[in-house]
Amino acid sequence: MKNLFVADVSWVLIILLSVPLYLVFINIYIPVFEDRTFISKYFQDRLADFIPYRPFYTLSINALSTILFLQINYFLFSFKRVSFTKLLINKKFLKMFFLTGTLFFTAKRGQLYYPLFISIVAYLIYKRHLVKLVFTSSFLVILVGLSRNFSEIVKGELSLEHTLMTLSTSFFVSVRELTRVLFFFNEGEHAYLFGKTYVAGVFSFIPTKINSLKANYNYMRYTSIISDQNPDEFGGMRSTYIGEAFVNFGFVGIILVPILFAIFVYIIHILIKKYALNNFIYYVMVFWIFKMLVMPFYENGSSMILFFLITVAFMIICGLRIVIRNKRSILKISFLHKQDEKD
């Protein structure tokens, strides 16, 4: 399974996938940069202009985040010792620099933060560099704060108070939003959905225009609907998987869903222990499952399935190789070949 989590991705694919982001930068964000901070990263103020780009923008940002994750792992896995000098002279580091810079300017902290955090922290734990782990983790938290206030930095108006305020809004939001969802659900006397949001989540890869189940019962869209918001303009309320369990099955769901999800995660962990090539890959896989499956499901419920599928799809794409055998080009799935896993 190593080549599913470690890959040296080609520049052609990276540039191709970054085009939608730069189109949005040029056409949507830069014209209002001086008047907006990165807090308007969802482009609420220019939503009508942004909507045509949104599907490609979302796909692009998640794809580049996945590639950054694979590229960092490749760099760390390829060298027994990583030094600052090697970073400067290694050509592949330029890919990581480009990916990090591009994601930084989107201000989507999750897509930038998760590959950096998972890969670097897993590597430091693997190497047992505890002091470096503390300093690196602190730096990554600071980086998140700076990315949320970049235009203020340019203007020279950055303050510690405002930075801490923007960071505080990033944590425990889902618990607060849970109370709002429960209020709207009970106040509107809505009927239990009996699993409709979970089915909508599984089929969320089908566009909303031709998927009425997703349009009405995707969990984030559903929270917008019951709160009298336009689901095409309002992103919904991150109200934890507990909120989704309740609106589907009531108190029975609050008990049953966590048990089923815990069993599912436990089975995944058994498979990780079985197929991890070494401790570094093991730590990377465990952190990846936590960030890409456990935390998103906790915050967003089944709405996270689409982004999870996008991530896995690009991991698989990056794990494909074209090899020449007997003068014929063959598409090879590298992470399914044991010999490639050892190389």
TrEMBL record:
The keyword Transmembrane applies. Coiled coil: none annotated. The keyword Membrane applies. The chain crosses the membrane at residues 12-30, 56-76, 111-126, 133-150, 245-268, 280-298, 304-324. Keywords: Membrane, Transmembrane, Transmembrane helix. This is O-antigen polymerase. It comes from Asprobacillus argus. The lineage of its organism: Bacteria, Pseudomonadati, Bacteroidota, Flavobacteriia, Flavobacteriales.
